[in-house]
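[Automated response] Your request has been received and processed.

Submitted sequence:
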Amino acid sequence: MNNTAIRKPIKKSVVKKRKQELKTAKTLKKSADNKRKVVKRKKPQVISKLQKLDSEAKKQASEKIEDTNRKFQLGLRYENGSGVKKNLTQAINWYLRAANQGHVKAQLNLASLYENSDAVEPDIHQAIRWYYSAANSGNADAQINLGNKYAEGKVVPKNINKAAYWYKRAVDQGDPRGQINLNNLNQKQ
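Generated structure:
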């Protein structure tokens, strides 16, 4: 028996289909080549527009940061009576404006004033809210404050695991107080 393969004739419909696929592929390639040429011609214009948009976005972000910092600085001035008459209510108002825009130090100062201020009725729920905001943004002071609150259990339910969590976050920020408090917490157990 002969091992050579017997060739079957290729159907005309298959040949026609293959020719059509080849024609489509050539058309797609030509279209892609034309698009590349257009992009190469317009590339400097597009890059220029993107750079302009990028610089405008950076400018707006910078202005927002400056505005937020000014609000925080006004809060500090009113809190400390620096250049203005000391007014803790005004300090809270300016800190609130900056804190709502994500200013971490304003969040921390606001929490502290809500917790300890004589100018406003102490509001521990607001204090805890702003400590959380600052702590979640990486502020070690706020993380330690939250750790202390959970370790003491006076204003929030005592929870050693949450206290340890916040102290560890402060350690991760490089704050040695977090490690000291964590060691003290472990000795009490």
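Summary generated for your ticket: The two ends are 89 Å apart (CA to CA). The chain has a mean pLDDT of 83.
If you did not submit this request, please reply to this message.
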